[in-house]
Amino acid sequence: MLSSLAALAGMDGRKVQQARRALSFIAPHRRTISIILVLMLLVAALGALEPLIYKLVFDRLGSNTGLARLLMVVGAIVAAALVKEALNGFSNWLSWKVRLSVNYKLLDETTARLHSLPLSYHREETVGGLMTRLNHGINGFVTGISDLAFNILPGLIYLTISVVVMFRLDWRLSLLVVFFAPLPAMIGVAASHEQTARESSLLYRWGVIFSRFNEVLSGIVTVKSFAMEEAERRRFMGDVAQAHGIVRKGVLTDTWIGAAQNLVVMLAKSASIGFAIYLIQRGETTVGTLMAFLGYQGGIFGPVNSLTGVYQTLRKAGISFDIVFSILDAEDRLRDAPHALPLHEVKGEVVFSQVSFGYNEERRVLNGIDLHVQPGQTIAIVGPSGSGKTTLISLLQRFYDPTTGCIKLDGNDLRELQQRSLRRQIGVVLQDALVFNDSIRNNIAYGRPDATDAEIEDAARAANAHGFIGNLPGGYDFVVGERGGRISVGERQRISIARALLKNPSLLILDEATSALDAESEVLVQEALDRLVQGRTSFIIAHRLSTVVGAHKILVLKDGQIIESDSHESLMEQDGYYASLVRCQSRGLLPA
Length: 592
Ligand SMILES: Nc1ncnc2c1ncn2[C@@H]1O[C@H](COP(=O)(O)OP(=O)(O)OP(=O)(O)O)[C@@H](O)[C@H]1O
Hints:
The protein is elongated, with a radius of gyration of 35 Å. Helix 1 crosses helix 2 (13-23) and helix 7 packs antiparallel against helix 12 (287-328). The chain contains 21 helices and 10 strands. It folds into 2 domains: 11-328, ABC transporter transmembrane region fold; 350-586, P-loop containing nucleotide triphosphate hydrolases (Rossmann fold, 3-Layer(aba) Sandwich), CATH 3.40.50.300. 64% of the residues lie in helices and 9% in strands. By secondary structure, it is α/β, with parallel strands linked by helices. The longest helix is centred in the middle third of the chain and has 53 residues, at 229-281. A 6-stranded mixed sheet has the order 6-7-8-3-9-10, sandwiched between helices. Strands 2-1-4-5 form a 4-stranded antiparallel sheet, with helices on one face. Adenosine-5'-triphosphate (ATP) is lined by residues 123, 359, 365, 383, 385-391. It comes from Geomonas anaerohicana. Keywords: ATP-binding, Membrane, Nucleotide-binding, Transmembrane, Transmembrane helix. It is a multi-pass membrane protein.
């Protein structure tokens, strides 16, 4: 049945497959759905029999009917209505239960997928756009499959019962009703192409609008610094107005379509009444039959329309299915190999062998990198902006795989290791340390939610953070605000150092952690970092040469290649690029 419906909706084989796959999300609720369908069938049957009662009332009860009999009839109608509403209510409750479960499962699967997809996927997407599409996709998906599951069968049953009863009552009037019945639906079908295109274009627009809005709010400091609030507001409202324009045009089209459908219904009713009166005058039918037909006629357009609604929903749902499945099926080139090994104890020997990498095919960002780091060594990476320092570190965390060559940790190719277990062994302290809008305690325990309060405090002490935390209202329970906006840059960095210390990683990645700080903060952060790097293999990305003088090895990267690699003293003796950088910095040409 799904295939024929889908074919009717102009859906190709891929779409039919997609609709099937969508329906598999409700498969675990088969039993509840069966109960809902039975209830809906009863409701549909009761609805279909209702006009018959009117026929009986009009044909059998004359003007001399006693009050008791009248009350009985009214009582029977009320009782039938009560039963119908009770059944309807119960089936509605059950169907919401199913909808919410499907919604939960979809959210579970899509968010799990979004978390597991590699950085390259997220770099292609915008947060606001993704959230808008995800929200729309999941809602449309749930509506689509519940319509598929719950609207088609009861509608068909109602139609079947009604048509059978009508033909038994009067075949000539029935032919008239059946002739008009599909017309509103056909108008709906004709309009659905435009409606689907409109839906798609609106979805795209809202995605773009909210993606920008999200960027603006996240970068509100920049927006305010450049006094661009008004310009951003105007841009946002301008885009919203354009989207509203599409909605308005759509509403107008929908109103015309609705009016045309209602007109057809009116025409149908008038034709039935006229024809029935003609038949009554000839003594070939009764007033009761006319009343019953009017009931059926009103009732029949509903299911036919809702079947058209299913047709429209199927097309609209196709858009939502596309969104959800595009996330679930997004290619994950970095997923763990089936035989990937977990990483437990790490000594910290890192080897890069002939590693080359490009974010795209056009351009190589790293070229033939060879590097051997002994456990516990500190490696400083310096080089001009854009030379590939961050990229090198991203490869070490396996955010990307090398295009050629390989990276080994303790003799294991990173591609052979389970990514999560690898990253558990790596502590990262970034220049712009990300802290979440949560308590200081939870931020420090981010990588180790099971840590005790004593462990958290020890880590904070070692990171020179315990002092300032004690001065905050609520201490460790102080909530730092979005992106840590309620504490200073240096404090954020010390929290992120405490977090790394608590995680006790074997490998460390530090990204220019002491920049943009005042002298006192810099000393505190530097002390904390010195404690952090002890006994761990550490990679420090540094623009400031003074922070790297003590490293075991300094790598100088230029245009994606290691052009020098040695200790500070040896590199100074070699008098190459590094030595020139040091001289520039001592002369104040580079920031100290
Ligand atoms: N996601 C990306 N997609 C495409 N190109 C990228 C991407 N990220 C970085 N690049 C490019 O790769 C090159 C190396 O970037 P990378 O961030 O590794 O440099 P860097 O040495 O860390 O620079 P900086 O010192 O300014 O942080 C740059 O030319 C950059 O434009």
